[in-house]
């Protein structure tokens, strides 16, 4: 079975288990960084795959942490091999430069979610992500937020109740013919699709405002969604809060303009 294949430290391994030293900091402390990409047209070089940006994300983190760089050619070799089996790759780096690449399929219900939206719930402010500028192996808070709520996604918030991001992506809201997304300074992950979308909207003369998502703002939105490199953009039709639920239009016409980004190239 293809799901029994992964790449680790320069080798293709046929197994569902990975052996690590019991003192490995990646095991003990989640001391890894990772990125997850979707390969378009089975190519690492397709513009939407955004291979170089994913590598740059990893490089930024390991340089910030003072870790050893991987063998980038070997990393690409492993990704290229797994790409023949999977459209989605998760690339993980350890502090000593080891690379670990796993693959998976796209979600079975992805098209339905893209077309009709999903339900989210607001998580407790205690579920904040550590080192939010980096995708580290310590993803416990986001995982807990998503799995502890009766919803398909969790919205992470700060201590003032401002909405920050979902457990797996960046937030987008639409009102007054403008798109809004929380600023990076609020403590969110600088998503690669977020960056692509900001640039694409601005190049097409679509207003993009990076503002904190206060109660006064997110209650004004006509439509909201979240983005990441795997799902592209998924509307959110309902957000459950402790004080009640908010409803948004998952069929808002502005979504059609954003979806053009993923078919234009």
Descriptive account of the structure:
With 265 residues, the protein is an alpha+beta fold. The protein has 2 domains: 2-104, D-amino Acid Aminotransferase, Chain A, domain 1, CATH 3.30.470.10; 110-262, D-amino Acid Aminotransferase, subunit A, domain 2 (D-amino Acid Aminotransferase, Chain A, domain 2, Alpha-Beta Barrel). The protein is 26% helix and 28% strand. Strands 6, 7, 8, 9, 10, 11, 12, 13 and 14 form a 9-stranded mixed β-sheet that branches. A 5-stranded antiparallel β-sheet has the order 2-1-5-4-3, with helices on one face. The protein is globular, with a radius of gyration of 19 Å.
The arrangement of helices and strands along the chain is: EEHEHHEEHEHEEEEHEHEEEH
The name CATH uses for the topology of the largest domain is D-amino Acid Aminotransferase, Chain A, domain 2
CATH architecture verdict of the largest domain: Alpha-Beta Barrel
CATH superfamily membership of the largest domain, which one? Answer: D-amino Acid Aminotransferase, subunit A, domain 2
How is the biggest beta sheet arranged?
9 strands, mixed
Q: Could you report the average pLDDT, rounded to the nearest whole number? A: 95
Count of discrete domains: 2
* Beta-strand residue fraction: 25-35%
Evaluate the radius of gyration.
19 Å
Structural class: alpha+beta
Query: Any idea what the shape is?
Result: globular
Low-confidence parts: none
Q: What distance lies between the first and last C-alpha atoms, to the nearest angstrom?
A: 32 Å
Number of DSSP strand runs: 14
- CATH class assignment of the largest domain: Alpha Beta
Helix content: 25-40%
Number of helices: 8
């Amino acid at each position: 079975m293809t799901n029994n294949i992964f790449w680790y430290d320069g080798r293709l391994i046929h197994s569902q288990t990975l052996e690590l030293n019991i003192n490995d900091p990646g095991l003990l402390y989640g001391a890894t960084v990772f990125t997850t990409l979707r390969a378009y047209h089975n190519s690492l070089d397709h513009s939407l795959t955004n291979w170089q940006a994913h590598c740059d994300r990893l490089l930024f983190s390991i340089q910030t942490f003072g870790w050893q760089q991987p063998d980038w050619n070997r990393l690409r070799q492993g990704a290229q091999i797994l790409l023949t089996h999977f459209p989605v790759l998760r690339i993980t780096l350890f502090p000593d430069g080891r690379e670990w690449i796993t693959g998976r399929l796209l979600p079975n219900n992805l098209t339905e979610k893209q077309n009709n939206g999903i339900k989210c719930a607001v998580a407790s402010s205690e579920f904040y992500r550590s080192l939010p500028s980096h995708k580290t192996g310590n993803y416990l808070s986001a995982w807990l937020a998503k799995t502890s709520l009766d919803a398909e996604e969790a919205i992470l918030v700060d201590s003032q109740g401002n909405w920050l991001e979902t457990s797996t992506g960046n937030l987008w809201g639409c009102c007054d013919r403008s798109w809004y997304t929380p600023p990076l300074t609020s403590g969110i992950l600088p998503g690669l699709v977020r960056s692509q979308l900001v640039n694409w909207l601005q190049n097409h003369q679509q207003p993009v405002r990076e503002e904190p998502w206060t109660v006064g703002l997110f209650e004004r939105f006509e439509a909201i969604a979240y983005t990441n490199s795997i799902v592209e953009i998924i509307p959110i039709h309902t957000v459950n809060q402790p004080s009640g639920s908010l409803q948004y239009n998952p069929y808002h016409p502005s979504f059609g303009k954003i979806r053009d980004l993923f078919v234009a190239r």
